[in-house]
Design goal:
Structural class: mainly alpha
Shape: rod-shaped
Distance between the termini: 133 Å
Number of domains: 4
Largest sheet: none
Length: 667
Amino acid sequence: MATFNLTKNAFALLGTSARANRAQLEDAYHDALLEAEDHNAEAVLNRAQQSLISPRDRLESELGYFIVAKPATAKTIIASLKNGSAAISEVSLAGLDLINLSAHLCGVGSPQQQFKHASQLIEAYDALEFNEVADALNALRSVSGFGPVAAAQVRSALNRLRVVHARAALDAILANHDGVEHLAALAEELSSAGTARRAFLESLLQVYEARIAPDLGHAATKVRDSLAAVNTNPENDHLVTALAADLRAWDKLAQPLQNADRARGIDEHHSRELFGEIRQVCLSFANERGLYSQALAISEIAAQVFSELPDAADKLEEDIEALSDLSSEKAKAELLAPLGNAVSDAEGRHSATCAGLRKAGFSANAPSPVREVHGAFASLIRMSNDVELNGMGASLVRNLGIELCNESNDNHAAMAIVTGLLKHRPSLPVDVIKALEGDCKTLQRNIDFNAMTDAMKLGQLDEADRLAEGMLEGADTETRGILLGVRSAIVERKKARKRKLIGWGVFAAIILFIIIANDNSNSGASYDTSASTNYDQAVTTEAEDAAAVQDEQSQEAAGADPVGAGEAAAADVSQAETPPEPDQTYRTVSLSELRYCKRQKARLEVVQNEQMSNPQIDRFNSAIEDYNSRCGSFRYRQTDMDAVDMEVANDQATIRAEAQDIIGSEQ
């Protein structure tokens, strides 16, 4: 049955117009009764006549009929409607007359025709003017003799009629398969619609909410049941898929209400309640159970479903970003775990690791534990298309090379790791490749330097000169100057007599010192890990910790109390020099030991070019040999180096005065 039917209007039943006075209504009643064929007609016609006499009922009938159209036009339209014809020209109708006819036609014809008339009804409301309706009604009353109607009464009656029209329009809209989507689109118009259109859309959505409430409640129950199932068994992907389907089915029904409340600037209350329950499960998954990927999957679905809720959308955006990071990190950690375990095993077996790398390089043919590290890294590269993840894995292996270089002083083993990793360039990020290339240059420099030093010790001056020449390429300005000095010293060495000044020893010590200094600050022999990922080890920090422990042990051995140790440290900073123990390579020196090496080097440089007697040359050569044995190779803290450099720069006069004591008198 049609929600709004013009043929059931009291005026249409009596076959008269809205202009009829009381006498005409009486005549119309008797004429209609004579023409009636239904035995129930008398009761129906009697009620129609009485409703047109009752003030309130008459007002409802007047507004629900034709108050502007000519009586003949209205009679023709009613006749066509009674005959079941929907092919009526509405050209002559406007305002409330057109709205009433459109509301009637919402229940006539195919779903497409009904939808067309519903759209026409909404457009007609957009043009409706209340004052025009009130004026037309009172003009009609002046003819019928029933007296004028107050504006407040007209407005109340129109509000009630608008709800009836909304029911008719809703029936027509929902008769189409995409009716809910169309209704959702209409809801978005609330914020921009004119007064009359907005009022009608509000009524339309209120009617929809009341009608859809049972279905919406049933859909919400299905969502909650699915959510409970996922909460019980979150690893089951099928349950998550079922939850997504139930959520989307619920959302389709709730969409018009969500859009309407968003246009009003509020969160739709059904959606807000359900969103809270879903988000609580996601938070529990993430914070209490570590199920980041499951929480992320549900949150992404919820972000689509609750996008019309401003507050919910903001929270979900933050949740998704955090969960994406957590899920990604967890997945990466799981993929990196085998490689991390293999690297840890190799770190605990330095001798075997170095031997394996020297024998077969970083390859699948290397003995254990290198073979396991290479296998885990190669497996990661095969499984992952993520360059960043590959870079993390490469950094884990690179850290092993850092440790072998720093702790075992094995540049060749470290070089094997670096060159092995660089074979995977296409799979690695640019920053990791650059770090590895820098390592390669530094390690090669260290290898060449050690070879040059060995050659000089063995008297193989030509070989030492060749290596020094090779290191000149790519050397920085300071190192280049020193290497040139070494080559000059080698030339002099070749020409010198047996007891000639062997000043090249000073240069050799200086070279090693400067190279190590550069390495500690610029990704050298100790490897700078600044470009590494969070999985890298802070090598320089471990060296500092080891040195600090060594200092504590030294103080404890000396019986120093905590207060006394602090006072001694203060004195050490100001002046103390402690010669390092000889032949202790690559250990981290204390501040006082570093001060001795720097100041002694400066003193030797002052006197090396002076004219010396043979006894002075002997004493100078002895000082050089002692210096090389104590300060030939070491590591240091950068803060200590900065402090000592400043002291040496500010104390040149004292250093020059002390330098003469090294060689003594000419006898």
